[in-house]
Amino acid sequence: MPAPKNTFKARLGTGDVQIGLWLGLGDPSAAELAAGTGFDWVLIDGEHGPNGLRDVLDQLRGIGDQTQVVVRTRDDNRADIKQMLDIGAQTLLVPMIESGAQAAEVVRSMKYPPQGVRGVGAALARASGYNGITDYLQTANDEVCVLVQVESRAGIDALDDILSVDGVDGVFVGPADLAADMGMLGKPGAPEVQEVVVSTLTRIRAAGKAAGILTSDQTLAAQYKEMGVEFLAVGSDVGVLRAGLTALRAAYR
User: How far is CA 102 from CA 94, 109, 212, in A?
Assistant: First the structure.
C-alpha cells in the first residue's frame, strides 16, 4: 500500500487555480468547519498562528479528508519539518526563503534518502498509518509537496536560483513582508509592491513552477486568478469571522 495521493500536488500542473483559505485561529473545531465549506485547500499557519505540533495534529484530524491541507512551518528548521511530515502533513509551505541553497536544504529536509535527509521513523508516525501503510517509505517522496515562500528583496534577487532547485514544487509570494522590506509597511497593495508581486508571479510560472499568493482584496484576487496562479488563498478564518460578527452587530445598531 503506497502513501496517500497528494491531490493538491497533482493539480498544480493541470492549469487549475486551486482556491484556498488561511487558518490562523489554531482551533480544531474551526478548522473542521472551514474544511467543509468547499475550498480546494486550507492552510494551517504555524508561523503566525498559535500552532505547535499538537495543535497542527488536532487540526489535521479535524479536517480529515474534507479538503487538502497545507501546513506553513514556523521556519526552515529540519527537525520541525520532519515532525510536521510525520504527523501527516504532505504539503509544507516554508517561509522566509532567500537563496537557492536554502531552498535546496528545505527539499532535502522533506525527502527520504537518497533524495534527501528526512529522518526515518515511519513506524511511529501517523503519516504511515502507524506502520499500516506498508510501502510508505518507498512512496512518500513522490507525494510530499515542497512550497517555499519568497517575501523579501533578498528572496526576489535570488528567485532564479530558487526556481532552479529540483524538488521545489511551488513558490509562494508574501506581499506583506515584501512591502515591509520595501519600506511600505502595511501597504501590500501599493502599486510599487504590486509591480514586484506580479513580476515575481510571472517569473515563477514561466520557470514551470506553481505560483501562489494570499490576499483578502477581491480585486487583486481576481487579477491573480486571471494570471493563472496555481494556488490562491482568498481570506482567513480570522478575517471572515471578524467581518461577519462586525456586520451582524452593525445590523442591530
Answer: 10, 11, 19
Q: In the chain, how many domains are there? A: 1
Query: What is the reported pLDDT for 1?
Result: 85
Q: Note down the domain range covering 154.
A: 7-250
Evaluate if residue 15 carries a pLDDT over 90.
no
Instruction: Determine the pLDDT at residue 122.
Output: 87
Are 158 and 99 in contact by the 8 Å Cβ rule? The answer is yes
Given the residues 5, 48, 225, 242, the one annotated as active site? 48
124: Cα within 13 Å, side-chain hemisphere? 5
166 has a pLDDT exceeding 90: yes
Does pTM top 0.90 for this prediction?
yes
48 is catalytic: yes
Please state, in angstroms and rounded to a whole number, the distance separating the CA atoms of residues 123 and 118. Answer: 14
Which residues have C-beta within 8 Å of that of residue 157, sequence separation ≥ 6? Answer: none
